[in-house]
Task: structure prediction
Amino acid sequence: MAPPGFGGDLDGAIEDFEAAVAKNPLPDAYFNLGEAYRKKGDLEKAKAAYKKALAIRPNYPAAAEALAGLQ
Result:
């Protein structure tokens, strides 16, 4: 996710994270995908991404905290 000075391209970041989880579904990639969706305002997709991160790594405090913040 590029900082605002570099365009802040959330759509590009989402595209990249979607491609990353399709190739290698790592919990960190799902967490970052959730963060991008949250920043974009798509809270349902953010929740789904956080849940996928937690399904892979149940003890993932950042994902659990982020999900709880959206409940």
In short: The longest helix spans residues 10-23.
